[in-house]
Amino acid sequence: MNCKNAQDLILGEYIDGNIGSELQKELKNHIAACAECRELEAAIIQNAVRPFRQAEKAKAPQAIWEGIKDRIQKEYAPKSPVDVFFGLREALGYLFYVRKPAFAIATAAAIVIAVMVFLKSPTQADVYLNDQAAFMAGLGNGGGNNSDFDPASILEDYSL
């Protein structure tokens, strides 16, 4: 085992005690033979492991535990139908909450403009194009069976 691998193991799994027995044996042999890795192990134990093992365990005040207990009881207490609807309203409120009103107004305006563009009334250009299409269809038909087709009257209507 080289020093790089040994140091990685010392900094991680070895100190935590999460190392296999075969690998631990190999690492201990390396530490016994290598002064640099032995110093690293001693420094880590002295500066990181011992202070936590010797530290007193802090206890939370009883008032905190009572507050946690009360919250848990409120969270899992049976709910009345009014509470259920209030919870649903609150959940939907978060769903439809508008964080930036200016953005919402701009989006609504863009939608209104888009609808107006697509649902606009026919303009003179639309009427002109429809007349031209009807005229061309009549010409392509060559008069056909349509006895009402009179190119001169169509031209008169168009020019007036």
Name some characteristics of this structure.
8 helices, 160 residues, mainly alpha
Strand portion, in percent? Answer: under 5%
User: What is the C-alpha radius of gyration, as a whole number of Å?
Assistant: 43 Å
Number of strands: 0
Please report the distance between the alpha carbons of the first and last residues: 102 Å
The percent range for helix content is: over 70%
Sketch the topology as an H/E string, one letter per element.
HHHHHHHH
Mean pLDDT: 79
Helices and strands: which structural class? mainly alpha
What can be said about the biggest beta sheet? none
| Poorly predicted spans | none
Shape: elongated
Figure out the total of helices.
8
Describe the structure.
It is a single chain. By secondary structure, the protein is mostly helical. Among the domains are: 3-54; 122-159. It is built from 8 helices and no strands.
Write a compact overview of the structure shown.
By secondary structure, this protein is an all-alpha fold.
What is this structure's SSE topology?
Blueprint: H1 3-16, H2 21-33, H3 35-54, H4 62-76, H5 81-95, H6 101-118, H7 124-141, H8 151-159
Helix pairs in contact: 1-2, 1-3, 2-3
